[in-house]
Design brief:
This protein is α/β, with parallel strands linked by helices. The chain is about 35% helix and about 20% strand.
C-alpha cells in the first residue's frame, strides 16, 4: 500500500473489514469478488478505487465506478464517494460534483460514477481503473466492446463485483479467472465470512426459499435466469443462428423500439417466402433520430418499410414526430397500432419457428432476448405479470414490433415459391 493511500484511508476513517484486507493488498491487474448480500463490497471497492486514484503516478488519471444504471450507481455509491472524498479534495464545493457524479482529486485524477445502460458515455476515452458493480445485471458485451479496449493504452485495471444471478457473464468471468494467475479472485459466503451473525442468517433463511438463500447468501451460481421469457424459443432456434448474409434481391424491413433519451433498438429483416431472415441489429443510447437514419444508410441495404411502435406518432421537441422525420428523409414508414404486452410476447413466440438470425450482427439483440425476463415478487415468491425493464427491454420491445409488423405485411407473389433458407445455407456454406 502506497504511503499516500494509507494516509488517505486514515483521513477518511476507513477500517476495512477483515474479509476485504486481501483484496486491498492484491497485486493482480484483474479482480473478481463474488460476495453475499450486505458483505460491504461496494464500500470496499469505492474506497479502494478512490485511494488508488489518489496515489497514482499517472498524469490525469481517470477512474470509473459502474453500476447497471446511473441512478443505481448514485444510490449505491455516491454517498460513500462524497464521505470519503471530502477530507481529501482541496475544494469540496467544486471538486465533488453531483451534476456528473465525479470527484476531482488534488493530483488531477478523477473518479466518476456511470450507469451501464448508457455505454456510449463510457466510450471514446481511457480508463486507469474500473469497478463494475453487480456485473451480473449488465449487458455482457460491455466488457469486451467498451471497457477492456479503454484500459489498454494505460494498462488500466478492472474489478468485477456482485452477487450471482444464475449462469451468465458474471459466472463466466468467475470460471475463467480460476486458473489464470492474472486474476485476484475471492468468494465471500455468508456462512464463512463472519460478517452477518448466525442468528440473522437463520432468520433470513426462514423468510426465503432455499434457492434464494443459496444465491443471495451462499453465492450459488446454479440458478437459471429466473423467468426468462424466450428461453424455450431461443433454445429451439439455436440451429438457425448462423452466418446469414444480406441478399440484395430482397428489400429490408426494420422494426424499432423508440427511446430518444433512452436506448433505441432496431431489428433488420428480409422476408423470403415463409422465412423471416433477421440479418442485423443496432442499438444506441441518447441519440436523435437523424443519427439512426445515418446508421441505416451506412449499412448499404435497400429498404422497404420502417415499422415504428405507436409512439412513433408522438411529437418531439422539434415539433415533428419520429415518423415525420423519417419520411422526410425518404424512408417508408408505418406506425403500428398499440398492442397488448402479452399478445405481443405470444406473437413473438409463435414467430420464432420462422426466424433465422445472423450470428454476428444480431449478437447484441439475441443477448437482449436471452435476458428478457419476468419480474419477481420477493414477498410473494412468484413471478410478476410484467417483464423487468432493463437494458434487455429495448431489443425485446423492438422484436415485438417485428412480430406485429410481419402479421400486417403483405407478401408479394414473387417471394412465395423461393427456395428455403435451409437449402441455400447448405449450398453456400453460410454457417461455416
Amino acid at each position: 500500500m502506497a504511503a499516500s493511500e494509507a494516509s488517505a484511508r486514515r483521513t477518511v476513517d476507513y477500517a476495512p473489514r477483515a474479509a476485504f484486507v486481501p483484496f486491498h493488498r492484491r497485486t493482480e491487474r484483474w479482480a473478481i469478488i463474488v460476495a453475499h448480500r450486505r458483505a460491504g463490497k461496494t464500500v470496499a471497492c469505492v474506497m479502494d478505487e478512490l485511494t488508488g486514484a489518489l496515489s497514482t503516478a499517472k498524469q490525469d488519471g481517470r477512474y470509473a465506478y459502474i453500476a447497471p444504471y446511473r441512478e443505481q450507481a448514485k444510490t449505491a455509491a455516491w454517498n460513500y464517494v462524497q464521505r470519503f472524498a471530502t477530507p481529501i479534495v482541496r475544494d469540496p464545493a467544486n471538486d465533488i460534483r453531483q451534476s456528473d457524479l465525479s470527484v476531482r482529486l488534488p493530483n488531477k485524477a478523477e473518479m466518476r460514477l456511470f450507469g451501464a445502460d448508457n455505454p456510449n458515455a463510457l466510450r471514446g476515452g481511457y480508463w486507469d481503473g474500473v469497478i463494475m458493480d453487480e456485473y451480473a445485471d449488465m449487458r455482457p458485451s460491455l466488457w469486451g466492446e467498451v471497457i477492456r479496449p479503454a484500459l489498454s493504452d494505460r494498462q488500466g485495471w478492472a474489478v468485477f463485483i456482485g452477487t450471482p444471478r444464475g449462469t451468465n457473464a458474471f459466472k463466466h468471468v468467475w470460471d475463467e479467472a480460476q486458473d489464470d494467475p492474472r486474476w485476484f479472485k475471492m468468494m465471500l459466503k455468508a456462512s464463512e465470512s463472519g460478517i452477518i451473525s448466525p442468528e440473522e442468517l437463520a432468520d433470513a433463511r426462514k423468510d426465503m426459499t432455499e434457492a434464494q438463500y443459496e444465491q443471495e447468501y451462499e453465492c450459488s451460481f446454479t440458478a437459471a435466469i429466473l423467468g426468462a421469457i424466450y428461453a424455450k424459443e431461443l433454445a429451439a432456434a439455436e440451429p438457425r443462428i448462423v452466418s446469414l448474409p444480406y441478399d440484395s434481391q430482397y428489400l429490408v424491413n426494420t422494426a424499432w423500439d423508440i427511446g430518444i433519451g433512452d436506448a433505441m433498438a432496431v431489428w433488420f429483416w428480409q422476408q423470403v417466402g415463409h422465412e423471416i431472415r433477421v440479418i442485423d441489429y443496432y442499438e444506441a443510447n441518447g441519440e436523435q433520430v437523424p443519427y439512426y437514419l445515418g446508421i441505416l444508410r451506412g449499412k448499404g441495404y435497400a429498404y422497404d418499410t420502417c415499422y415504428l411502435p405507436h409512439d412513433g406518432n408522438n411529437r418531439q421537441l422539434t415539433g415533428l414526430t419520429v415518423a415525420e422525420v423519417m419520411r422526410e428523409a425518404g424512408f417508408g414508414v408505418q406506425v403500428l397500432p398499440r398492442g397488448g404486452l402479452e399478445e405481443g410476447i405470444n406473437a413473438t413466440r409463435m414467430l420464432f419457428s420462422r426466424m433465422w438470425f445472423d450470428k454476428q450482427k444480431c449478437a447484441a439483440g439475441l443477448e437482449a432476448l436471452r435476458h428478457y425476463q419476468w419480474g419477481y415478487n420477493d414477498r410473494m415468491d412468484e413471478l410478476k405479470a410484467a417483464p423487468v425493464h432493463n437494458w434487455a427491454s429495448h431489443g425485446a420491445d423492438a422484436m415485438r414490433a417485428l412480430a406485429q409488423a410481419t402479421s400486417m405485411a403483405k407478401r408479394s407473389e414473387s417471394t412465395m415459391n423461393l427456395p428455403s433458407l435451409d437449402a441455400l445455407w447448405k449450398k453456400n456454406g453460410w454457417g461455416k
